[in-house]
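In this supplementary section we document a worked example of the pipeline. Step one takes a protein sequence of length 808 as its only input; no multiple sequence alignment statistics are reported here. Step two produces a three-dimensional model, which step three serialises into structure tokens for compact storage. The input and output of this example are shown verbatim.
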Amino acid sequence: MSAQLAAILAFVGIALDLLVSDSLLVTLGIPYNVPGGSYVWKVHPGSYLLMLAFVVLAVPANPVRLVADTARRVPAAAFYGVTVAGLFAYVTLNYGFSGSAFVLETLAMPLIAAALMLHLPERYRALLFAGVVVLVTANALLGIAEAVSGDRLVPYMIGGEPVFERHFRATALGGHPLNNALITGTVLFATVLVLRGRPVLGALALLVQAAALLAFGSRVAFVVVGGFGAVWLTVWAAGSLLRVRHGVRNAIGHSLVLLLIPLLAAAAVVGLGLGERIFSSFFMDASARTRVVAFRVFALVSTPELWFGIGPLGVERVLAFLRRAQGLSDAIENFWVLWVLNFGLVGFAPLAATLLWFVRSLLRGAPAALWVAALTFLLIASSNNSLGSKDRALVILVVVLIGGLAWHRSARPEPAEEASPMPERAGRRLAGAALGVLLALVAAADARADAPPIRRGVNLSHWLQYGGRQPVTADDLAAIRAAGFDHVRLPFDPARLGWTPDAPLARPPQQHLLDAAVRDILAAGLTVVLDFHPPEAARARIEREPAVQDGFVAFWRALAERYRHHPADRLLFEPLNEPQFPGRAAVWNDLKGRLLAAVRDVDRTRWVLLSSLDAPTIMDQLRAARVFRDARVAAVVHFYEPHLFTHFGANWGTASRPPESQIAALAYPSHRLDPATVAIRPGPETAKAQALVRAYAAAPWDAATLDRLVAEIAAWSRANGVPVVVTEFGVLRLKVPPESRRAWLSDARAALERHGIPWTVWDYADVFGIATAVGPVELWRDGAVVPADPKAIRRAFDPDALAALGLR
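The serialised model returned by step three reads:
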């Protein structure tokens, strides 16, 4: 009875070790790996349960006798235990309890797990091994789902602080991506043992675990597991094909499985976007350099410190120096180095020697799969700090090695000479299951490529921005819907709501104005894109000032909360219009991550449209953009090519200054223009103005050129698995010939639709407008036609503009 209870407690403890991460504990308010709190909270709940399981098993059998029997059966465990006990005392005496929890959790708990496993009945050991395989596979499935959706179940945190990365990496329930990769890669090879008795289930588990390694994004794990796996598969396939006595169809089944593996990998990489970090950063980047820089720590410690260690505070001091002077971008990602720093060579040497001996002893009589699993564990762990900080990975390795050996013994066929490595029927089932997984991946890939729920739209500019000179009525919205538009973009100046850089309120007092506009738009049957569109001065402060950025993020979090019950496919967010961030692309990329995280904390299904930085070309903008693996994120592009033509005659920007302001006329397509006949107004840059006209005419700017530019945007979208939306495009209607404007709108719209890119024309009724106020109106200096009576607003569409947009 005590053995059964101990096995149950052990399983629950192992499940907690695997599925309750440091980040989850901190999220739940438990200060597991952050400063403060009682020492009780510094030990993982799974460790408490494993210790309780050991007590339940040991007390009836005499604890001293059980420990002595463990030392007799595995002498290395005794030496390793003495070493760990000495280090625990050394750390506690020299540095207090701040580092002793690490020794207990990471180094001592594997001993307790080993003693527990060795004294459970063999069938319980095998069941615990099977439980680990199931739990790790389930966690791997969750990791794949996170990578495909770009959304995490548990926030990604290190030391209690949220982490934002350029390339999304799944965290699942295991916490850090590298910890997930370590456990998954190790268990993957142990899962090979399941193939003997459960070939189909074992093969599916292997496929899921292999795909999850791509989702977790560890390059070292990918290389180690891929290398060992390639050798293993080659040997297995060769051996299978040589065993003629097992049947031709069985051999064919093996061959088909082997051929399907690269197809499955290709589907996972290309279709689902898995492995983005691995394949886009497979070179000496900042993360890789961190591994090299880590070895420079030994030049920063004295000889006595090298021999006897510097403890946790000393490690933090060295890390701070390396980050400042050597460009270290992360922690020291090598547990061997961390052991030397913490314990000195005096402690490191016996610890490393007895640990390796301990692991080697657990492998006595083990099949090749467990040897490869142990070697995989040590190689992957050497590239991160899992064993250099509080972690339960070594406990899982011990359970896998002891439990895997028990599984192997229980599944060994009798007699051996009659056994087939894979029965003929199982071979067919395995091939069919692999093909099914492949088809499912392809189907998921197709689903992931869906575009946002908008197609053709118009910007309602100057309604909640720029003084509100173009208020929009219910009749306007009904006319927009009747014309064939499916959505509108609503640019709003946050100051109209009461949000300013000096008062960046999460819930500004005039937010009811936005509520009313959203209500009217949705009532008209239109989808709405909310566009945070501040004036230049306010946007510049958002880009420069961290306090304003905090208020900006808080505003979007509160807005997501406010509209969380609105249909996710009818209301979309565009957090910032045309960000600039000159020379500070990383700041905007990080801020986008914070914005997305704030929205996702509240609303996991809302579409978020994220703009790129201003850059010389649209493709430069996209290439600099941070790519999020979130199924409901799209990249925003504004298409005004060429700017010289689309903004011709504007009283702002470069168009309002020489040399552009000296050009008297332009036409589209540019081949209609004879540079020799274009008048150049007197001014200081006549030669430059003439050169601009010649370059414009020679480009040439026509339908083919616009289509080529849009094709490049679409190619980027496909390559990165990110939908692109054009939320602004249009031509200023003041001074270009109407036929030129109509031709450009038609060519640009046709190119966008040809390549499947949703568009929103700028704008509805102002100086770029496709509609004009009629009746009593005022003509403003910039050419805007504004209703004179806000109570009697009437507008009429320009039929040529609608025709150019393919509408009625």
